[in-house]
Amino acid sequence: PGDDIASEQSRRIVAKVVMTGSAADGPEWQPHIRSGEGRRQMAVRFKDPGDPFRIVIVRDMWLTGFDVPCLHTMYLDKPMRGHGLMQAIARVNRVFRDKPGGLIVDYLGLAEQLAHALAVYTESGGRGAPTYDAADAVAVLQEKHEVLCGMMHGFAWQGLVANPAQMLRAIPAAQEHVLQQDDGKRRFVETVTELSRAFALCATTDAAMALRDDIAFFQAVRAALKKNLGDARRSPEEIDAAVRQLVSSAITASEGIVDVFSAAGMQRPDISILDDRFLADVRGLQHKHVAAEMLAGLLRGEIRKQSERNVVLSQRFSEKLKQALNAYHNHALSAQEIIEQLIALSKELRDEEQRHTELGLAPDETAFYDALAANESAVEVLGNEQLKLIAVELIRSVRNSVTIDWQFKEGARAKIRVTVKKILRRFGYPPDLQDEAVKLVLAQAEVLCDGWTM
Of 98, 282, 350, 434, which has the most beta carbons under 10 Å away? Predict the structure, then answer.
């Protein structure tokens, strides 16, 4: 309430009223009357698809000239006509991520006014179709549903959709069924995405509602497949809000929360430490393709963490993982074989994290040592002990030279580049390898500099 739009209590509120007013308005209106700055802050939050503020009640404000690409549904309960009606509808017609269009819920029967407004739009030279025909969306929905049912042929899934707990527990087996098919993962994920887009355009039709439970199951399997890819960039708003709104009741387990690791038949791991017990559990999982995808995702996450500490180590293991997965996806390795390779790669990565003790260096010094030793010729010329000395000197000098935001200032970068080159020349680092070494050292300094400049 009030102008305290940034307060913790206000940030938990889902719906707000946007209006102007004055002190003369009654006390029941005062909580909704905000200053210009308060309304501006509210607009910033409403445009953020991750903010809990999702519903706004307006009369004239924000109906025209207010661009919110993620806005997907508008409820109309006031007479409108002409360009004002067209502009209001335009608030929800923006394409955004997986959102193909908007939904207008008309409480007054504005079809005649809309038809007239569209006629004016067309006569004025407008091009394209400003609205979608729900029947066309239903046809696409049914087509994609049929394709997905075909992909799930042979897997008894339709008896599960009415029981959310059973449905979630069956997801690993459903993943396995999809992954066993040729290019099954890509085809399934793409088809479910197209199904979701069609559903968002016709969600209120009887035909769409009849398929709601099936759509929930397909989306749950798709989410699990994408999660196993280790794609951390996937946003929680990826599926249109209209889909989530109508499907949510179908995927909420009344028996309580179902843990996905328990559903897969294993204990929840400490993902930061790929220990032997967890790796043994993965090896023993029933659904081998699912186990391979899950382990690859966890391993990719571990490698991503390494990129924040050791650039060379991260690059090396990223390439090893890529080669192993390419062989698996090209059917050169079976599911069990790729699991064994990934387990071996996980153990190798775990051992690498402790290698600094063998070298007698600190973890940061080891990262610089790896940058210098990335070229085998340098190791042959100087030897490990000399490279270790250079690494210690480099980290001391670079640490003393970096300042806040140095990586964004070319002058500061040039100064550090000169410092690195002087040290390499002083210790006899091969001249023909220095340019590449400098690049790696600077890249390594950038991923560590946040901790140095705090």
Answer: 282
DSSP conformation class of 56: E
Number of Cβ atoms within 10 Å of the Cβ of 268: 10
Q: Please name which of 319, 295, 315 lies closest in space to residue 307, comparing C-alpha atoms.
A: 315
Of 191, 180, 185, nearest in space to 149 by CA: 191
366 closest CA partner among 304, 439, 428, 306: 306
Q: How far apart are CA 367 and CA 313, in angstroms?
A: 8
Q: Any residues with CB less than 8 A from the CB of 348 and at least 6 apart, and which?
A: 317
pTM, two decimals, is 0.47
The whole-angstrom separation of Cα 342 and Cα 316 is: 14
- What is the pLDDT at residue 1? 42
Residue-wise pLDDT tens digits, 331-351: 888 888 888 888 888 888 888
Closest by Cα among 116, 141, 118, 142 to 131: 118
- The alpha carbon of 420 is separated from its chain's Cα centroid by a whole number of angstroms, namely 37
What number of other Cβ atoms are within 10 A of residue 107's Cβ? 9
Q: Are 55 and 62 in contact (CB under 8 A)?
A: no
Q: Is 170 exposed, middle or buried (0-12, 13-18, 19+ CB in 10 A)?
A: buried
The residue written with tokens 């017609």 in the block is 93
Predicted local distance difference test score (pLDDT) of residue 3: 47
- Rounded Cα distance between 414 and 392, Å, is 21
> What string of DSSP letters covers 76-125?
E-S---HHHHHHHHGGG---BTTB---EEEESS--HHHHHHHHHHHHHTT
Query: Tokens representing 24?
Result: 């003369």
Closest CA to 398 of 440, 337, 352, 348: 440
pLDDT tens-digit readout, 28-83: 888 888 777 777 888 888 888 888 888 888 877 777 667 788 888 888 887 777 76
How long is the chain?
454
Q: With 0-12 CB in 10 A as exposed, 13-18 as middle and 19+ as buried, what is 415? A: middle
Contact 424, 437 (CB under 8 A): yes
Contacts of 309 (CB under 8 A, 6+ apart): 363, 364, 367, 447, 448
Residue 161 contacts residue 214 (beta carbons within 8 Å): yes
CA 111 – CA 61 distance, rounded (Å): 23
Give the DSSP per-residue string, 162-178: T-HHHHHHTHHHHHHHH
Taking the CA atoms of residue 15, residue 19, residue 23 and residue 29 in that order, the dihedral angle to the nearest 10 degrees is -40
